[in-house]
Amino acid sequence: MVFDIVTLIARFLSKINCLRLSGVLSAVLLMSVSARAEGVTIPNFWDPRALLERPDLPATRTIRFLVDDDFPPLHFPGLDGNPTGLSVELARAACERLSLTCTIQVRRFDTLLDALQERQGDVVAAAIPITTDLRSRFAVTAPYFKIPARFAVRKDRNQPAPEARTLQGKTIGVVGGTAHEAFAKSFMAGGNLKPFPELAAAQAALKAGEIDYLFADGLGLALWIGGEEAGGCCDFSGGPYLESRFFGEGIGFITRTEDEPLRRGLDFALQQLWKEGKYAELYLRFFPIGPF
Predict the structure, then answer these.
(1) CA distance to 16, 45, 72, per residue, from 90 (Å)
(2) What is the reported pLDDT for 245?
(3) Apex CA 150: angle with CA 282 and CA 145, to 5°?
(4) pLDDT of res. 253
């Protein structure tokens, strides 16, 4: 069943515009503590020392979440046609935690921020990377998801864990022109980098044994590793890698700057959902093979 879920999501992922995915990978960083549950590492993006207070929010207000439906496993159509995914279900859970009435509205990805600015919705819950430019225009919660970089290897090659000395002379596949290639050039000088035009080509090369390691985005690799195209050939090794200059600050809920109580309320709700185990429950639902 897990295999079928990952394969289905991987097929959805293949439709995603590559510019959108690379955009998610080029924002800023995380300070992360991880917990492990059922073999999947669940990331924690919330400082346990930070005691957030719940702001007063009018219970009579209906909060309108704006989402896109073409970025699984974060937001995509469910089997019943309704939007689902980690971002969508976190939005619903946050509303429940705050005792607010909320709606989910699906719009085209490139129209989400304009719709928020024009007051056609109150919160964007989609894979828009947190950047300096975004913060200058809108308010953003703490990140609830990031896409780490990871190494993948063939299971039958017994490659050592990727470190500076063990990568000496090894062939490392990367997708050309990405943050992963730039990171590899900066920190893996002893390896022989082999750029590929797209992730699928690099994955095929790893499966065929043409490269020793593949260094790429952990989300794409997780979906591939668990899907039918990999055929059980490969697994993660080392990492995750979350260097801010290369892999970004992540994804959070976006509100208008004047809606500060709502942003603080969502930050409070997200932290509580982590503490109460709801975040882990949802993460495991959508990431049977996690990128962390």
Answers:
(1) 22, 14, 14
(2) 87
(3) 30
(4) 98
Measure Cα distances from 181 to 27, 92, 148, 199, 228 in Å: 16, 37, 14, 12, 26
Judge contact between 143 and 248, C-beta under 8 A.
no
The confidence score (pLDDT) of residue 133 equals: 95
Closest by alpha carbon to 291, among 189, 147, 182, 191?
147
* Closest residue by Cα to residue 103 from 87, 119, 80, 122: 122
- Spell out the alpha helix ranges (H) of the chain: 2-13, 18-24, 86-97, 112-117, 132-137, 179-187, 199-207, 218-225, 244-247, 260-275, 278-286
Please provide residue 133's backbone torsions phi and psi, each rounded to the nearest 5 degrees: -65, -40
pLDDT of 20 reads: 38
Return d(Cα 79, Cα 193) in angstroms, integer. 41
198-220: pLDDT as tens digits: 999 999 999 999 999 999 999 99
| CA Rg value for the chain | 19
For 44, how many CA atoms within 13 A lie in the half-sphere containing its CB?
A: 16
Query: Would you say how long the chain is, in residues?
Result: 292
Segments of the chain scoring below 70 in pLDDT: 1-38
Q: Which amino acid is at 169?
A: G
Average pLDDT, the chain: 87
Torsion of CA 124, 286, 224, 150, to 10 degrees: 70
Name residues whose C-beta falls within 8 Å of residue 149's C-beta, 6 or more positions apart in sequence: 25, 179, 180, 183, 215, 216, 217, 218, 239, 240, 241, 242, 243, 246, 247
Give the three-class secondary structure for 242: coil
What confidence score (pLDDT) does residue 152 get?
A: 98
Q: What does the pLDDT read at residue 40?
A: 84
3-state secondary structure of 93: helix
Q: What is the pLDDT of residue 25?
A: 29
- The percentage of residues in the chain with a pLDDT greater than 70, rounded to a whole number, is 87
